[in-house]
C-alpha cells in the first residue's frame, strides 16, 4: 500500500520490529498522519518519553505506564497495540555453586534485577509465585545496570516494608555482581555477558525453558505483554482521532508483517528452520500469535495488574479500560 497523502506530522519512537516495518517503508499508511518513526532501543525510548515527553507517541513499558495511571498521572493515553511480548522462563540466571537448583531455592537469596518495577521482572516474579510458590518477600532485590554501572529506576518507587530493594554499588554491574558472588541469581530481559561468554560459571535456572514456556501458555493463556504504545495526552486532546488512526495502522502493519512469512519462496529472515518454527507457532497459538486489543488480552492485563499490587509496586491498579483511549476499546462495524 502506498503511503497516504501528507497529513498531521507526528513522531513515533519504538523498536525496529517487523510488525512496525510496514509503517516505515510505506506499505501501510496512517489515516490523516504523516508519520516519522524514530527507531530506539526500549530503555532509551522509555527514558526519554517518561522523563522528557520528547515524542508524540512512543513504545512504553507496560509496568511504567500502569504505575503512572495508578498514581493519577495522565500525561499519556494508551493504545492496545502490544509491540513487545515475551516469555521470561529463559531470563533467570544463577551462578554455578550457588546451591540454587530450583525456583524455591531463590527464597532468602539476593536476586539482581535492572529495575524492580520493570515489566519483565514483574512477570517473572509473578510466574515464580503463581507456578512455584516462591515467597517473593523473602528475597532481597538488588538493582542496577546490567553491563553499565549507574542505572536507576525510571520512576520513584514507594514500596511496603516487606519488599527489600537494595541498589548494587555505583561502580558495579549486575553481570559482574553475579560472577563475584554479590548476588546469587539474576533476572533480566537481556542475556548477561556473564552467561553469553560461555565460560560455564553462569547457567539458566530453567535450561528447558522452551518446553516450560509452551506449557505455561497452554495452562494460563499468557503470552506476557511487555510494551504498549502511548500517545501524549496533549496530542490526543487536540486531535482526538489520532489514537484510533494509529491503532488501525499498527494492526494493519502487524497483519502485513505476518502475511506470507511461511509461503515466501526465499526465507525473509535469517532462520534456516523458519518453516518449522512457524508451523509449531500455529499449533500452539493459532492463526494470530500476537493479538492486539483489550478484549483479546483482558485476562493477562488483569493478571499483570494483580502482580503490580501483590509485589508492592502500586497500592491499587487502574481498571483495564481506563488504561486505553476510549476509541480503541470497540471497533466500528459495517
From TrEMBL:
Q: Where is the SsuA/THI5-like domain?
A: 31-147
Highest taxon in the source lineage: Bacteria
Q: What class of enzyme is it?
A: lyase
Name the UniProt key words of this record, in alphabetical order: Lyase
- Key word Lyase present: yes
What InterPro entries does the annotation carry? SsuA/THI5 (IPR015168)
Question: What's one Pfam family here?
Answer: NMT1
Q: EC number(s) in its UniProt entry? A: 4.1.1.55
* Listed GO MF terms: 4,5-dihydroxyphthalate decarboxylase activity
Name this polypeptide is given: 4,5-dihydroxyphthalate decarboxylase
- Per the UniProt record, the source organism is Nocardioides soli
